[in-house]
Amino acid sequence: MKNFQTFLVLVFLCINASLFAQEKESSNLILITNVKVWDGLSDKLIEADVLIENNLIKEVNKGIKHSEEILLIDGKGGTLMPGLIEGHGHLYMNGNSLPDIENNRSYDELAVRGVARAKSALMSGFTTWRDAGGMGAGLKKSIDAGVVDGPRIYPSGAFIGPTGSHADFRNFTTPNETVYGAHSSGGRNNMTFTADGVDMIKTGARQNFMQGATQIKIMSSGGVASSFDPWQLDAYSAEEIRAAVEVADAYGSYVMSHAYSKKSMMRCLENGVKTLEHAFMFDEDVAKLMKEKGAFMTTNMTAFSPYLGEIEAISSNPASARKAETAQKAFGNYIKNVNELQPDLGFQCDCVGDVPTCEKQSDHSIYLSGEFLGNLFTLKSLTSVNGKMVKLCGETLDPYFQGSLGVIEVGGYADLLIVDGNPLEDLSLIGANEKWFDAAPRTEIKPMKLIMKDGKIYKNTL
Q1: Confidence band (pLDDT; 50, 70, 90) for 144?
Q2: For residues 381 and 349, is the Cβ–Cβ distance under 8 A?
Q3: What would you measure as the largest C-alpha separation in the chain, in angstroms?
């Protein structure tokens, strides 16, 4: 009996040793050297090497010792920085306009275009993407499975808004789709969900979570680049906002809300919304409540671009043009207030369009943010701030819960860029462009020499 027990112990030790050896052999180690590091937080660069094990950062230190088995990447004096994070994008809103998406595009076409947009985003340095409505989780799952290339995606599912809101893409003669059945592509393809009242809002939110959403997007105010809803519209009552928040809380997640007016923003914050989208009437009262509630905001800086009137959705629609004119007057103190009050502001591009359109808009958005708010603020909004924001969905729903995002630190995901220069001094290294519609088409951002996501290299021109 004793010999048999000894035999079992030996077998157990051998099995464990074998498993350990297999694990050690399968471990993928990458060491990046000869770089200056911007960690996503600091106001200066440091000299350090970065050791990556599989898909996570294992060590950040100067002069990391290594063996021959490690893959060495010589950064050639460039700057190693976190991958960029889109805080509010729409990969499936990829037609020429909302009416074009609504009337002319089937879901399989939107999906194929979404694949192209996702690859373009990754090759522009965006390694994480919070999708702010209009898509399910299918593209995210396909990217995670390695079927297609793209950023990590935090999907919001269908836009949720009341009849006649910014989530209602119907023309003026189409019946309410939640009541009478889907008559348009937005309703049929679950890109939008018309929800009036507490019960229907809860139904829409629960459906989105069931289908893979990591957070809920509601439309609690109107917009500009749309045919009907005035931007001043306070679309949801306090009770209705709380209904969405109640469902999100039950899943350990949060609600993001499209909100333009101060009244809408304050109502959202008072009732549990964690991120304000656009937030153009941001002021001291909003800042105080955001801090108290631990809330974030994202803003599309193109709203303040001299090119604004050239956006097709505005220039081709007299109603939108009038809304844009009144909005610009009402939002006049936004940049001053942000610079003075320094909220947790995440970058967003909010592009509706094809690949060339959205590459140009993203590059121009980065440029505008740098001009209005400074390079450091802009870089943090593109990395560490958005990295914290996407994690608000909680570990239960977070598809990427193992590591931090938007920072270079031990335990963070190996989502990294190497750029040829110092981005704290020059945002063109990550694509910033003063031009917008008249910008030359591009296929890559040339100073961006290396793009890595999840420890895998997608571009290396070092």
Answers
A1: very high
A2: no
A3: 91
Q: How far is residue 82's CA from residue 382's CA, in Å, rounded to a whole number?
A: 9
Q: What residue type is 406 in one-letter code?
A: G
- Assess whether pLDDT exceeds 90 at residue 74: yes
Per-residue model confidence (pLDDT) at position 24 = 42
- pLDDT tens digits for 338-383? 999 999 999 999 999 999 999 999 999 999 999 999 999 999 999 9
Rg (CA), the chain: 23
What token pair was written down for 371? 């001009």
Cα distances (Å, whole numbers) of residue 371 to 148, 177, 283, 321, 366: 35, 43, 20, 25, 9
- Residue position matching structure tokens 């898509």: 135
pTM of the model: 0.90
pLDDT confidence of residue 143: 98
Asked if residue 32 lies in contact with residue 80, where contact means CB atoms within 8 angstroms, the answer is yes
Q: Please state, in angstroms and as integers, the Cα–Cα distance from residue 161 to each residue in 192, 317, 324, 392, 442, following that order.
A: 8, 22, 21, 22, 36
308: nearest Cα among 350, 254, 370: 350
Structure tokens at 65: 């010792």
> For 111-119, which contacts have Cβ atoms below 8 Å and span 24 or more sequence positions?
111/138, 111/139, 113/354, 114/139, 115/139, 115/142, 115/148, 115/150, 116/354, 116/355, 117/91, 117/354, 117/355, 117/358, 118/91, 118/143, 118/148, 118/149, 118/150, 118/151, 118/153, 119/148, 119/149, 119/150
Whether residue 18 has pLDDT greater than 70: no
With contact defined as beta carbons under 8 Å apart, do 300 and 278 qualify? yes
Pick the closest to residue 186 from 167, 172, 201, 210 (CA basis).
167
Number of H helices, E strands in the chain: 17, 20
What's the rounded Cα separation, in Å, for the pair 355 and 358? 5
d(CA 46, CA 394): 31
Residues in the chain: 462
132 and 89 Cβ atoms separated by less than 8 Å:
yes
Among 28-32, 228-232, 437-441, name the one with the lowest average pLDDT: 228-232
For residue 431, is it left (φ>0), alpha (ψ between -120 and 50) or beta? left
Among residues 425, 423, 412, the alpha carbon closest in space to that of 449 is found at 423
